[in-house]
Write a structure and sequence with these properties.
Elements (H helix, E strand, L loop, with lengths): L1 H10 L1 H6 L9 H12 L5 H8 L4 H14 L17
Length: 87
């Protein structure tokens, strides 16, 4: 319930209605901007989520951890599937 309330406060009721419908893929630039707003500019997590339209608190926390450990390159999309030549 608390997670839903945080999501409602940060991005509004529309996102709650869409939860579970489709996984949103955020661009690299959006991820970096949102994380930098929290880490470098001192913005709170809910404020950053509202400003950048991020619905998932768990994803945002993962981005923050990855950014703090490995920098912005850790937020780049990873290639899907097997590498070429793998059997």
């Amino acid at each position: 319930m608390r997670k839903w309330l945080d999501i409602y406060r940060s991005v509004g009721i529309e996102v709650l209605a869409l939860m579970g419908a489709k996984k949103t893929i955020y661009p690299f630039e959006t991820k970096v901007a949102a994380v930098r707003a929290v880490v470098d500019e001192g913005m709170t997590k809910p404020e950053a989520m509202a400003r950048f339209g991020i619905a998932s608190t768990s994803s945002f926390k993962k981005w923050l951890k990855a950014y703090r450990e490995d920098g912005p390159e850790a937020l780049r999309p990873k290639p899907k599937g097997r590498p070429k030549g793998a059997k």
